[in-house]
Amino acid sequence: MEPRPEKRTRTEPEAEAEPKQLLPDDLVLEIVARCPTIAGVIRCAAASKPVRRGILHASFLRRLRGFLNRSGGEHGGQAPLSVRKLLLGLYHQSGDPRGQPAFVPVPDGASLPPSVAALPPASARDGAAGGSACEFGPYLPVASRRSLLVLRRRCRNRATDHLVGRHGLHPVELSVCNPSTGERRVLPPHDVLDMSHSLLDVDPIAPSSFKLLVAELSDGDPSTLYVQIFSSEEGDWGPPLACPITISRGDREDSCEFACAARRPRPVVLGDTVHWLCTTDSGDRILTWRWRGGAAQKASIVKLPRGYKFGRPEKCLAVLPSPAGDAAGSQAALLSLIVLDRGEIEVWAREKSGAGSARKWKLWHRVQEASIPRPTDFCNGWLSGAELSWFCKGSGTLFLQAGDETVSPLLLDLESMEVSKLEARKWELNPEPEFCPYEVDLLSYMLFVMKRF
């Protein structure tokens, strides 16, 4: 046996160079939590590995968010801090049943691994249900919010005993993942047909906490909204709800269907209410459902603004901050409508004209194509014929699909009104352009960044 090498003793200069933590860990983390900016927290994490481990702990990150909300954080005001979101890019269906969705980063965006976290191994029940395994199609990204991404794939195994035993009413599998932390959760079967997906109550700090809503407007019962919510804390779906759709006078709406140029609706979440663009017998409307509180047993219809462009212009829902704010100085988020028609963009918001008054639509902006700063390689008329695809609430960015399939998807920043484009052609994303933007909040992104050092 070879003799063990003697342990090398550190020289006096080396011992002096290694930093010593003189304060207890709890006191150090309390000081870090009072940093006025997220960047300050990251600088503190670079001081030593013990401090970094404490900062990356989920309990500290939640305490940090609470401190920022109470103090106003980077803004230095009395209003709670809305932690900023970063638009990193988009995920799109790759077409390969064995592959993950492909990722396309935004220009000059923050770096992110090009694929989502690896799937967990198939469970034993996949082969035990009916004696046959699932034959899944490719993943389809269907929703995202605050660092979480919802993926959907369909089982192609048509054996009746397998479908009933493994998937229940619908042969699909839903999973929720956090690409910045590597988490992935495969959800159990659900009862409501998942025509639309919305993430609710999202806390992306590992382990991620969320609620996922699936919604259905059935052809057989077009006057009822069917919904079901999965809770990560309970680990299961709640009971399916049948919510009658009513109009302003309390009458029942005869017919309602999701209005979407793409294959899947693009709902927006504002507080405890989910909003969809829809089509009724009276024309285009907004379908709303309040998922928390006593109003969860019914859905209602909101009319579009009277002065907006009639016909069938491109439009999508958005959530934008109020420019004025309330009496306390905080900025209230408002339901907004973005309309695109013949090279002109209109931005409408549903706001109150005074205390206690009902919300009414107001035209905020009317923007001509010529007034939008654009790259030099954009030709005149680039906005004409474009399609509105997604609104990214966290970053205030609007995704546009150009009318020409050889042109890259466009990104319009609604705050600066500057446009840029992705380094991918429309036909490269997917023959059925199904993609989903991916945003992270800074706290979740901090987890990803600090794992590198």
UniProtKB/TrEMBL annotation:
It comes from the Eukaryota. InterPro entries: DUF7595. This is DUF7595 domain-containing protein. Residues 138-453 form the DUF7595 domain. It comes from Panicum hallii var. hallii.
